[in-house]
């Protein structure tokens, strides 16, 4: 049977990972500035993470949410403590899209409304409502039934115009727009958005699925502002490859039995994986590392001729070019063994594990310098 072929992919087969490095089946070593799409927070095969999952698997891998699982409480306690949201509650699921989908359900129950306000260039997942608030072409008709308005990022007037109708259940905004090109929303705009949400009883959902979990140097990217969103959605870096999603929910929401649910979410293996990730982020001071190495990297990247703009925060960096970057990305990978991500056609997305060192950062910088120098000579 053949695979249903939907992913553009590189001709590389990774078989081993350690920290920020990957080896392919021929033994060639790569440095991972893509993080498997912002997933690798603590790096590949961290021994503490491996040991915790291994020993839990020998004990009990899974049982359903219809029984007691104190690992969930331990996870919630550690997560709320590290994020600074100790009065919020945790709902666990499996993916980012599921977290956002659950956030919309919550918002709709809370407000009795159904419309959602979202931003152009936003990405929130590929399930039904999540897909409809995502700024991608080719929406399937089954996903197009949702009532959604899309407005430009940082446009306060458009926010006010829509929310004053009091018809919107929620606004969803990324901590930093990833897929759309690595755009950091203006802090003042985010604060005013939170005020308008409060005044109009609209639920503010902060999608920190890509920008959260220490990636920008704070636990969540919106913590560079003073706001406290109603719901914060998470996934990617939460499990370091183990599929975990979740939301932190403000005390304003009251749960009732059956309000939300999932078969696999919060299972025993997921909880120990999630706990191990948080322990390593704390023990190895990875948020500080993301901030420090991110600054170092940005300073170096700023000096490279040929990059139109360097933007982002911490270890979520976008490099915009005047030309489509697919060939550049391939050269970085095949000639310099550097994995990078992409946003649209003209932006390289840099999303390494939070463990990278300045030495690793130099690998990327030197590779970029070398490829861009060749590009200029070829022109
Ligand atoms: C900001 C954001 N939200 C939601 C999602 C969807 O997450 P998942 O692919 O785990 O469903 C993504 C995935 O790239 C994302 O970047």
Detail the poorly predicted runs: none
Alpha carbon gap, first and last residue: 45 Å
Structural class: alpha/beta
Binned, the helix content reads 25-40%
Residue share in β-strands: 15-25%
CATH topology grouping of one domain: Aspartate Aminotransferase, domain 2
Give me the CATH superfamily of one domain: Type I PLP-dependent aspartate aminotransferase-like (Major domain)
Average predicted confidence as pLDDT: 96
Query: How many strands, which pairing sense, and closed or not: the largest β-sheet?
Result: 7 strands, mixed
Characterize the structure shown.
With 379 residues, the chain is α/β, with parallel strands linked by helices. It has a domain at 47-283: Type I PLP-dependent aspartate aminotransferase-like (Major domain) (Aspartate Aminotransferase, domain 2, 3-Layer(aba) Sandwich). Helix content is 36%, strand content 18%. The protein has eleven helices and 15 strands. It has helices at residues 35-38, 47-59, 70-83, 96-111, 128-132, 156-163, 187-199, 268-283, 286-302, 326-336, 358-378, and strands at residues 14-18, 21-24, 29-32, 89-93, 115-119, 148-151, 168-174, 203-207, 231-234, 245-249, 309-313, 316-320, 338-339, 341-343, 347-350. It has a seven-stranded mixed sheet, sandwiched between helices. Strands 1-2-3-13 form a four-stranded mixed sheet. The longest helix has 21 residues, at 358-378. The chain is globular, with a radius of gyration of 21 Å. The N and C termini lie far apart (45 Å). The mean pLDDT is 96. It binds pyridoxal-5'-phosphate. Residues 95-97, 100, 123-125, 174, 178-179, 207, 209-210, 235 line the site of pyridoxal-5'-phosphate. Pyridoxal-5'-phosphate is lined by residues 95-97, 100, 123-125, 174, 178-179, 207, 209-210, 235.
